[in-house]
Design brief:
Strands 2-1-3-4 form a four-stranded antiparallel beta sheet. The longest helix has 33 residues. β1 and β2 form a beta hairpin. It has eleven helices and four strands. α6 crosses α8 and α10 packs across α11. It has 283 residues and is α+β, with helices and mostly antiparallel strands.
Length: 283
């Protein structure tokens, strides 16, 4: 069976059959500007040219494949997207490990589209585990006397039943709403900056897989939230750049812009509030 090696930039996307390439061109998995090579060709050529030559029945004139140092990557999907074959637990753990240790590879593998419930389920599992353990740690801190009884009762931790009910309702609800809101803000910023090469679903998937992984860091007492928050920003910058096939600078600006605006608004409100108090109590 004839296979084509497809490359994009300095990345080898892998080897595919002609039928897979044709389907990939229709769905957007491959671009006409991607490079293609197969045994018998003299060099790498634009994919559109190779496919046109094959349609015409000609054989493109032999070149070595991309350098072996370049890792073959394809949009075959993250392990989580193959959980039916791998099993839920293994697919989740493999995806978290890949996102944490090799984010560029992970988000290059991620399918840009397909479904939204699968990535959302990943975010719910990772986020729920992290937040639930964080609440347990908070309860332990409270019981040790580091928090006042007033604060404990304020968050509903004084009654186990009420605390359990609040976890069951609040954690999934906050994760779902937060994921959609963050995705919408990031995609809007990416559109304004001209970096949104794909649909909202692509941005949503990046947010789900980054949050579902980094929220697990909440299990680290005291500093887990800070570490997870910073790493989540890094993952979103890398993920948006790879998934939308835009430059990292644009993706980073899209991620940082809402943070900058929120901080700016908070500072402005604080200044106005302080000025109002000074005017009110001015002798």
């Amino acid at each position: 069976m004839t296979t084509l090696h497809i490359g994009r930039g300095d990345t080898n996307l892998g080897a595919f059959t002609v039928e897979e390439v044709e389907e990939g061109l229709r769905t957007g998995r491959f671009l006409p500007t991607d490079l293609a090579w197969e045994t018998g060709m003299a060099g790498w050529l634009p994919l559109a040219q190779v496919m046109a030559a094959k349609s015409a029945g000609s054989i493109a004139p032999l070149a070595p494949p991309l350098p072996v140092s370049i890792e073959p990557i394809s949009r075959s999907g993250l392990p989580w997207e193959h959980r039916d074959q791998l099993g839920l637990f293994k697919a989740f753990c493999d995806t978290v490990g890949l996102v944490f240790t090799r984010p560029s590879v992970a988000f290059a593998m991620m399918k840009p589209e397909g479904d939204m419930m699968g990535p959302l389920l990943f975010a719910l599992i990772g986020g729920s585990i992290g937040m639930f353990v964080a609440y347990l740690i908070q309860m332990g801190v409270d019981s040790a006397g580091f928090m006042t009884n007033r604060q404990t009762s304020l968050y509903g931790m004084g009654h186990p039943g009420l605390w359990a009910l609040s976890c069951i309702i609040f954690i999934p609800l906050s994760l779902v709403l937060g994921t959609f809101i963050v995705s919408a803000l990031l995609h809007l910023c990416l559109m304004l900056l001209g970096g949104a090469k794909k649909t909202f679903e692509t941005t949503f998937r990046v947010v789900c897989f980054s949050c579902g992984s980094t929220y697990l860091l909440l299990v680290i007492p005291f500093c887990g939230g800070i570490i997870g928050g910073v790493w989540n920003i890094v993952l979103q910058c890398i993920g948006l750049a790879r998934a939308h096939e835009t430059d990292t600078g644009t993706a980073a600006m899209a991620v940082l812009l809402p943070i900058i605006l929120c901080c700016g608004c908070a500072i402005l409100v604080s200044v106005l509030f302080t000025f109002s108090l000074m005017t009110l109590f001015k002798p």
